[in-house]
Amino acid sequence: MAVLLASGSAWRTVAQTPSPAVLVPNTPVASQGGPQIQFAESEHDFGKIEGGAIVKFDFVFTNIGTATLEVTEVRSSCGCTTTGAWSKKVEPGQTGTIPIQFNSGTFSGPIHKTVTVTCNTPAQPQTILNLKATVWRAIDVNPTTVYFSPQAEAQLGETKVIRIVNHTEVPLELSPPACSNNAFTAELRTLKAGKEFEVRISTKPPFDAGSVQGAITLKTSSKNLPVITINGTIMVQLPIVAMPTQLTLGPAPLAAATKVGVILRNIGTAAVSISEPTVNVPGVAATLKELQPGRIFHIVLSFPAGFEVRPAAPAELSVKTSHPQYPIVRVPIVHGPREPRPQSTMEPPRPHAVTEPPAVPSPQQAPPVKPPPAADTLTRPTAPSMPEK
């Protein structure tokens, strides 16, 4: 191929090498019959939007094929992006729409979300649509939530910093922070008068076991954001952790004898001993094995066929420990939902597989443990052994 280039008052011919082929997103292959989808655009940029705003856009597509196009699913990558009622069936040559809504919520800065469209086109069953935006906030608070996870044995105070930036031309004034829970303290510091601040949130032990929550609030001089709220959560880590935290059996009553396992892991400062694993329901046998001295223990529970947890009498595994503050560890035992079965009288119910003990991350001294099973395999019964010939 040749092109003409101007050089002063003369023209000259220059050879041009053909450019390599470039694949264009959402360009369907040559029609071989059947439905074909083509979007007017597969990406939309909302540009600069204010934080908290909800913006909408309709993606338009055309069926350039020879059969009815059916859009079976539209799935977004994030809960902040939702879809309206889209065109489910589009005849050849006709167009359809997929309405999208994005809630900027607590986002800040550049964002990128995707929407996956599934349809009955044989050559291109899925198309990825892209949404972009830059979320601008008059007053930016980052982050709006803080988490703390102290150890129950050695409860130490911890501090995390929240940044507050005023992007407007009007100077911002903040009141001293107030805490709804005495487990938190907060201090306001001014980095740049009227523009930049930080809130230093600290925890104040001791804490009760479990979750501790509170809110830190600051009043502002801004009409758009009169109150800034920062949520704090303290999750106290107990020294002895059960994995899983709840044993889930199959539907009641159990169709066959079942074995399930639970791991107890000591993450405390000192080694402990574990003893006397028992279940508060008759007929359940428990065996205990120490995998790593003073640190990791494996308990296997054997449930007989017909076992059932009564709603009026909750079942649980309990073990004794040598820890002075936590002498007993309890693990609830429940039944999972009954799985629907097809109507058939020709085939008897199939037995479940044997449950493997869950895996535990442990030091190199610990013996290897198999990975945990899926939740729906915790109640698999032991397969019958074959007699020796």
Question: Which structural traits does this protein have?
Answer:
389 residues, mainly beta, Immunoglobulin-like, 5-stranded mixed beta sheet, 4-stranded antiparallel beta sheet, 27 strands, flat, disordered N terminus, disordered C terminus
Question: Can you summarize this structure?
Answer:
The chain has 389 residues and is mainly beta. It is 0% helix and 47% strand. A five-stranded mixed β-sheet has the order 4-11-10-6-8, with no helix packed on it. It has a four-stranded antiparallel β-sheet with strand order 3-5-9-7, with no helix packed on it.
Structural write-up:
By secondary structure, the protein is an all-beta fold. The protein folds into 3 domains: 37-136, Immunoglobulins (Immunoglobulin-like); 139-235, Immunoglobulin-like; 240-337 and 353-361, Immunoglobulins (Immunoglobulin-like, Sandwich), CATH 2.60.40.10. It is built from no helices and 27 strands. A 5-stranded mixed β-sheet has the order 4-11-10-6-8, with no helix packed on it. A hairpin with a 3-residue loop joins strand 16 (184-192) and strand 17 (196-203). It is flat, with a radius of gyration of 31 Å. The protein starts with a strand and ends in a 54-residue tail after the last strand. Residues 1-31, 344-349, 351-358 and 360-389 have low confidence and may be disordered.
